[in-house]
Amino acid sequence: MRVDLFDFELPPERIALRPARPRDSARLLRVGREGAFGDLIVRNLPDLLEPGDVLVFNDTRVIPAQLEGRRGAARIGATLHKRIDLRRWQAFIRNAKRLRVGDEVEFPAGVWATAEERHDDGSWTLGFHGDEPVEVLLERAGSMPLPPYIAGRRPTDEADKSDYQTMFAREEGAVAAPTAALHFTPELMAALAARGVGHETLTLHVGAGTFLPVKAEDTADHAMHAEWGRIEADVAERLNAVRAAGRRVIAVGTTSLRLLESATGEDGVIRAFAGDTRIFITPGYRFRAIDGLMTNFHLPKSTLFMLVSALMGLERMQAVYAHAIAEGYRFYSYGDSSLLLP
């Protein structure tokens, strides 16, 4: 499909620079396949679900993967986005034209890395020096990797250390938050449990590639970046039982959805999974694992807007976004949410 079909105009003032407080006070737009939209708040979610429904959350934890350093006199910025092994990470580099294979880059707090390899997509492999885990080095030298549409308008600060983590964050390795889950609080989870709504967790370490624009003119020519994920066998078994009982599996966030779909066969059975996924979901895709999606509002011409258009239909999502813009919904990572029930 032509990528420009997924374009739309978003006024800059609709981009949220801070999250709603409290988190579950964010607005929630309920969307069915047809009919009127529901303008609600996240705290209303239990009333929108049925007993026996199960929400699936991503328990990845964002690491301080943004680094500012120098190679000699040249300033080098690095955003780590995928672990290769204990000492090496793949990274997007700012001012990459000043970097050569074998160069050493000095970051704050005595952290050093060697530029080992340049990849076809322009990213680099950085090999970090020393014996300490890279995550320990990042705690000393790194900062939270806020999306460019926020970081370009204000500096990262102390509040982002907690604001940009979900209440489920446990498995370190993401460089972007699974933002749909940022709206959840212990109070909301208690209300969902009282309603009889269950929940499960999986892990998908979200990479910085999620923010990259689609540069191809046709979706068939776009290459997705790999992200590592895991679904435990007992989680897969319980989710299969939910669907077998006629209840709904609802992904919280596109990251949860993408991993569930990656782990599900043509037979509709969700299986244990551990490895990379490059799944790219566009209109025409047949969903196998999920019955709904809770997600924030996404960028124009992004792979995530293509995904929600695959779930609900492109014309329907164009109408959804026109409504959200007209009604003052806040967009992107710190913005409001939608519940899509096809």
TrEMBL record:
EC number(s) stated in the UniProt entry for this protein: 2.4.99.17
Compartments, as annotated in UniProt: Cytoplasm
Reactions performed catalytically: 7-aminomethyl-7-carbaguanosine(34) in tRNA + S-adenosyl-L-methionine = epoxyqueuosine(34) in tRNA + adenine + L-methionine + 2 H(+)
GO molecular function, one term: S-adenosylmethionine:tRNA ribosyltransferase-isomerase activity
Keywords of this entry: Cytoplasm, Glycosyltransferase, Isomerase, Queuosine biosynthesis, S-adenosyl-L-methionine, Transferase
GO BP annotation list: tRNA queuosine(34) biosynthetic process
Pathway in which this enzyme or protein is active: tRNA modification; tRNA-queuosine biosynthesis
Pfam families: Queuosine_synth
A GO cellular component annotation in the UniProt record: cytoplasm
Protein origin, superkingdom: Bacteria
Protein family: Belongs to the QueA family.
Purpose: Transfers and isomerizes the ribose moiety from AdoMet to the 7-aminomethyl group of 7-deazaguanine (preQ1-tRNA) to give epoxyqueuosine (oQ-tRNA).
Self-association state and partner proteins as the record states: Monomer.
NCBIfam families: PRK00147.1, queA
Protein name: S-adenosylmethionine:tRNA ribosyltransferase-isomerase
Organism: Novosphingobium flavum
